[in-house]
């Protein structure tokens, strides 16, 4: 989380400094800033000294999972997707994520309990349910659509500068998405606990 936060901030400052008047640069700046803030909040969660504080911070951070549809929203604006497609697709995702936030506030989405062992917080996953499967499916769908839009933008644009922007953004988002789900999908085969390596 610290790594993603620092890299996002550096990239955000660089991209805005390079051309602050360019709309794509401003949108990418906003995107990187959101990712950095999300991971910073998760660092605060992980540094909680006791369980009550941890759960309090975790519930506050629940609202930040809206970053999923927000990332897709910004990428759609960057690639200039038709608004007739954007509006219904994003409306569905935003409504879903409001439901996900409600369930996460009640510790009924991905994690149901937390245990501190040797100074590290372990995340105990919820039993598989319709809402948890829907959340993971929706998150993966957002990732798939986001990467597909960036790949399509890279392939179709004839402007060299935009090709470079698409490639850089595609590389960064690919790394971000990979780290995002590493903790949940890899460690689940070894334990019913996650180690909270990345904000999820």
Structure in words:
The chain is mostly helical and 200 residues long. The chain is built from seven helices and three strands; from the N terminus they run H-H-H-H-H-E-E-H-H-E. The chain has helices at 2-18, 23-46, 51-61, 67-78, 83-105, 130-156, 160-187, and strands at residues 111-117, 120-125, 193-194. Strands 1-2-3 form a three-stranded antiparallel sheet. Helix 1 (2-18) runs antiparallel to helix 2 (23-46), helix 2 packs antiparallel against helix 4 and helix 6 (130-156) packs antiparallel against helix 7. It is globular and about 50 Å long. The chain starts with a helix and ends in a 6-residue tail after the last strand. The mean pLDDT is 84.
Q: Indicate the mean pLDDT.
A: 84
* Net shape: globular
* Uncertain regions spanning at least 5 consecutive residues: none
Sheet having the most strands: 3 strands, antiparallel
How many beta strands in the DSSP annotation?
A: 3
Compute the CA-based radius of gyration. 18 Å
Percent range for β-strand residues:
5-15%
Order of helices and strands: HHHHHEEHHE
Structural class: mainly alpha
- The helical percent reads over 70%
Q: What is the spatial order of strands in the main beta sheet?
A: 1-2-3
What multimeric state do the chains show? single chain
How many helix segments? 7
């Amino acid at each position: 989380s610290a790594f993603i936060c620092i890299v996002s901030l550096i990239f955000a400052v660089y991209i805005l400094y390079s051309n602050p008047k360019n709309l794509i640069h401003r949108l990418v700046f906003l995107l990187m800033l959101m990712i950095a803030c999300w991971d910073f909040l998760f660092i605060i969660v992980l540094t909680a000294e006791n369980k009550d504080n941890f759960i309090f911070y975790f519930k506050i951070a629940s609202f930040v999972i809206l970053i999923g549809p927000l990332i897709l929203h910004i990428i759609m604006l960057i690639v200039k997707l038709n608004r007739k497609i954007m509006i219904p697709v994003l409306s569905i995702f935003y409504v879903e994520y409001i439901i996900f936030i409600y369930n996460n506030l009640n510790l009924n989405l991905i994690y149901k309990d937390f245990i501190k062992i040797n100074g590290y917080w372990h995340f105990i996953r919820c039993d598989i349910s319709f809402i948890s499967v829907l959340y993971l499916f929706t998150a993966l769908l957002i990732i798939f659509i986001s990467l597909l839009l960036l790949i399509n933008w890279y392939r179709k644009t004839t402007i060299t500068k935009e090709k470079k922007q698409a490639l850089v953004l595609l590389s960064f988002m690919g790394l971000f998405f990979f780290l995002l789900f590493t903790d949940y999908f890899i460690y689940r085969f070894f334990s019913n606990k996650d180690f909270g390596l990345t904000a999820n």
